[in-house]
Amino acid sequence: MFNPNKKQKRPKLFKRKLLSRVYSFIKPYQFVFYILIFLTFVIGILEPSRPYMIQIAIDRYVALKDYAGLMKMLFWMLGLLLVQTLAQYLLSYLSDWLGQHVVRDLRIKIYAHIIRLNATFYNKTPLGRLVTRNISDTEKLSEVFSQDLAAVLADFLQLVGMASFMFYIDWKLALLSLTTVPLLLAVTYIFKEKTKRAYREVNDVVVKLNSFIQSRLTGMSVVQVFNGEAAELDKFKTLNEDYRKANDKSNRYYSLYFPSLEIMRSIGISLLIWHGAKGVIQEITTLGSLTAFLMYIKMFFRPVSHLAEHFNTLQMGLVSSGRIMELLDNNEFVDNSGRYAPEQVQGSVAFEEVWFAYEGQDYTLKGISFDLSARKSLAIVGATGAGKSTIINLLERFYEPQKGVIKIDGINMLDYEVHSLRRHIGLVLQDVFLFSTTIYENITLGDDTISKDRVIEAAKMVGIHDFILQLPGGYDYQVGERGMTLSMGQRQLLAFARVLVYNPSILILDEATASLDIETEKLIQQATIKLLASRTAIIIAHRLTTVQHADHILVLDHGVIKEQGTHQALLKKNGYYATLYKRPYQVA
Ligand code: ADP
């Protein structure tokens, strides 16, 4: 099970394999990426050259009163400043462009991946975590590309550039100016470590918040029915408080860090003025050099603090990308090694000694065997937990049996290509899932090859066409999220229409247990008869009429077939089925 408190494995910064995988996402845009690197070099040289040019302007032209020379120098400075501004604009625009493109590709890749993962994966993975991977983690990665990667490189280059100019101008002053740098680095390192830990806490709480909201929203009716609002709100308040606290910690570090940088900068400036001014008076140092150094000290602190900040987000981005890669490395796919893909199947279904356990040796189905000829109907009855839905799960290939074989038309199910197989097996679950889109798309499920006529024909057949036409917009009526604006019976009928347009040879129906009004009940009954006609049908039956009409009945108990036969034969036997049948209203 997912344990949100469990420390997740975090990738080390600059793990080479991780970086090369991240790079594989940049590769399609590598031209832009190289332009970005070039631009950072341009800025890394131009920015530190300015104080040096000011030094030359003061010492060579102002001191010697060379007005024309000064103007030329100023002209150059202005020109280079324009180039730098342009480079900065391009850098900012292109890095954002790159970030957005990479994230778009990555989101598609993640979705394309998780859409193929199997039921076991979904059983154990909280949806909130998947939402976080697809939304927040990719967002972080986009920040890495759009801001941090280029910024870290540019800051680093600027630091190297400034140090080089400083030593070139006056190495003694350079050493003096840089005396506070070790202290600066130490403070920055402590800050970085502290905020990194705080960020991790923030991130963990975000995952918890997402999972919490996701599950509570999905189960809101349960929360409300059991008057759980106050308790749930309390839990949410606690989580939010954790979130605030985690953020508060990192804020505190920030509030401390920047003033301490200011103190160190002031110490540096004081040292420089004290020693430099003495040098100017004694004519060891020029006024231009002192001015340039004052500028350098001011400039020097910005990239260092930026580096610390961006380093953190870079690290967070890599943590996120590590998690994304972990998800992309998960290969719990639906096994699709079968190649048999017939245009049509007759529809006979046979279970031969099928054993299945969701986990380990805890078998849910224990040696199930039955043989259902094409176009016949099979009703499965049994108490809750007997294993009825599990038989459906196996038939839909959500899981594979550990022992035994399931055959369709005499051929092992595993030899079929999964998508082809699923096209021949229709499924209507009792809890109908509708997407928040139009009625029309809920019937076709976005398959453009299904014509409008066919949709209307199917709707007419199940008797819901007239109802749809009464809705505002008819077939274009937007059903609310999960189809909440429709009644249970209407959702059932829509699900019938959905299956009918696909016209499968085998139909699996999990009958709704909810009692409906007489009118809808009748509609559903008529629709069911039409739906099942001329197909192989497997029904988890809850209604007497259904079992009575079934060609064969399977009575399931704790994963074994207790009895089987026709309704009459089973009644005559006066066994388990007969006791179930004699219970009022329902057979299961
Ligand atoms: P029925 O449909 O007859 O009510 P099911 O087939 O849903 O019964 O369940 C049979 C048994 O399998 C139950 O004990 C249930 O707890 C277990 N089970 C069902 N689904 C899962 C799952 N996804 N993971 C683990 N166990 C499951």
What distinguishing features does this structure have?
588 residues; Rossmann fold; binds adenosine-5'-diphosphate; 10 strands; four-stranded antiparallel sheet; alpha/beta; six-stranded mixed sheet
- Which structural class fits the helix and strand makeup? alpha/beta
Share of β-strand residues: 5-15%
Indicate the CATH architecture of the largest domain.
Up-down Bundle
Mean pLDDT: 85
Order of helical and strand elements: HHHHHHHHHHEEEHEEHEHHHHEHEHEEHH
Number of helices: 20
Q: Which of globular, elongated, flat, extended, rod-shaped describes the shape?
A: elongated
Q: Distance between the terminal alpha carbons, to the nearest Å?
A: 31 Å
Number of domains: 2
| CATH homology superfamily name of the largest domain | ABC transporter type 1, transmembrane domain
- CA-based gyration radius: 35 Å
Q: How are the strands of the largest sheet arranged?
A: 6-7-8-3-9-10
Biggest sheet, in brief? 6 strands, mixed
Q: Which molecules are bound in this entry?
A: adenosine-5'-diphosphate
